[in-house]
Amino acid sequence: MSVRQLDARTVTALVADATAAPSMHNAQPWRFRYVCDAHTLLLHADLTRAMHHTDPGNRSLHIGCGAALFNLRVAAAHAGLPCTVHLLPDPADPQLLASVHFTPAEETGPPEPAPPGTSARLGTCTPGAPAAPGSAARPGTSAPAGQDAAGPAARASAGSRADAAGGAHAPAPALGSAADAAGGVGAAAHAGPGRGTGSDAAPATSATQNTVAPAAPAASDAPAPGSGADAAVGASASAAFDDRGDTEDLRSLYPAIALRHTSRYPFEERDVPEDVRGALVDAAEREGAELLFAGTWHTEAVLELVRDAESRDAIDPAAAGDLARWTRRGPDAGAAADGVPEYAFGPRPRDGRSPLRDFAGRRPVPDRGGAAFERHPHLALLSTHGDTPADWLLAGQALERVLLRATGAGLATSLTSHPLERGDLRMLARDPVSGLGHVQMVLRLGYGPAGPATPRRPVAEVLEVTQRVREV
Ligand SMILES: Cc1cc2nc3c(=O)[nH]c(=O)nc-3n(C[C@H](O)[C@H](O)[C@H](O)COP(=O)(O)O)c2cc1C
User: What's the number of CA atoms in the CB half-sphere (13 Å) around residue 40?
Assistant: First the structure.
């Protein structure tokens, strides 16, 4: 069997799209490794970028990485590259958050033409440094995606992202500190099965169109068993999902990857139409999560929790330490490749009703004016049924799906995780009447100025390409 591989340029482009995802304080806590022989891209947590005080259980870290994984799925669909995703494929290695196996054409049947203008190449893969952005695709065996890209297989029975999260591998150990001290609901305390398998199992959402199937790489692709990475690339024991039933919707989201930026500006006092709200709720459901638009009472309650969290942080030196580490001011703002630059802080809120983290804290920022924010912000809460690392990855994918849809619908967005970082406040954020499960993120949506683009580290810093899984 001829083994065709993604070339370095294509892998680089996919990872560049993945890293456009939001992450807490723009810490970009991810690393990628492409294993050529196995056609598999591995997503790892980068614990050097964890926030031990603000995010002691690494919940937010997983959410950011889940968002990056979702962008990767969108970019793969856009490029006409079918793939199979495993969440937490190796129970022995909790830093390995996901593996993405790109299906060679031999495994799937006749090729599906990729959309015109896409960059997919199935050609030689050279271990070492990833291709520089903009460099030419490697000559030789590269071929346009339309000729080589793997085609769709018959759709298997519908499942959900939650099924994959709750597969045989669900009780993965948590990263970092054992317990989510702030939330009291961290992975260690809740390391039972995720949705779909445990006592809190919920039915798969009917809107979910993704295929769930046991992953069985072709015999020649599977590395010899042994190391944790081997298991991840082989991944035959864990549940998997692919997007073959969902390609069109994923492709339609691609342009929004580059357009989505957090906007910490005031939004208009204008309603978000029902059909747009419905589309965002649907986006969350497709990933196995729930999006709930807060009513008047609930909005007031969440605003109060944000203010509470702000005032606690104002007198907490450790919180100030995380903020100082991840904010970029003065000349650093233009030069840094990570963190939140001062030009993205937005104006200082004058009326105290905006659910925004003030990244300046008490520090002066030259030329930063104040502004009155909307009196009636549109807040939506993203929740999951479980609260394990797999649920956080699921939440990250759902978050990014919602954000990309919102961006495509002309909405500006910002996020606040502030009240969710303290266990007592997080409990109160849930709508006691209709809210399910565990709140993972508070979104603010509306019509207003787009936020500025913030920097990302070069792909070469976050991507490693190896021929075989054992080369590390
Ligand atoms: C888990 C998570 C938590 C976040 N929490 C906040 C927050 O509390 N306040 C805020 O203004 N932005 C928050 N953000 C947004 C990030 O600051 C933002 O994504 C990052 O600075 C990159 O900027 P961008 O979204 O414009 O690409 C959060 C993002 C994630 C993924």
Answer: 30
Residue 203 sits at φ, ψ, to 5 deg, of -65, 150
- Residue ranges of the domains in the chain? 5-250+460-471, 256-446
| pTM to 2 decimal places | 0.81
The number of CA neighbours under 13 Å toward the Cβ of 360 is 19
**Token representation of residue 439:** 């709140």
Q: In this structure, which residue's CA is closest to atom 9 in ligand 1?
A: 416
∠ at Cα 133 (66, 334), nearest 5°? 75
Q: Which conformational region is residue 467 in: left (phi greater than 0), alpha (psi within -120 to 50 degrees), or beta?
A: alpha
Whether 385 is in the pocket of ligand 1, judged by its Cβ within 6 Å, is no
Q: What is the pLDDT of residue 202?
A: 33
CATH 3.90.1150.10 for domain 256-446, yes or no, is no
- Report which of 318, 446, 465, 441 is spatially closest to residue 59, judged by C-alpha positions: 441
Q: pLDDT digits over 52-76, tens only? A: 999 999 999 999 999 999 999 999 9
What are the angstrom distances between the C-alpha of 335 and each of 28, 338, 340, 361, 452?
Answer: 16, 9, 12, 21, 15
Cα 78 from Cα 254, distance rounded (Å): 7
119 C-alpha to ligand 1 centroid (Å): 29
Residue to mutate, 19, 23, 323, 439, ligand 1, most ligand atoms under 8 Å from C-beta: 23
At 379-395, the pLDDT tens digits run 999 999 999 999 999 99
- What pairs with residue 262 in β-bridges? 413
Classify residue 218 as exposed, middle or buried by CB count within 10 Å of its CB (0-12, 13-18, 19+).
middle
Instruction: Dump pLDDT digits (tens) for 88-143.
Output: 999 999 999 999 999 876 555 544 444 454 444 445 566 776 776 544 332 222 22
The whole-number pLDDT of residue 234 equals: 54
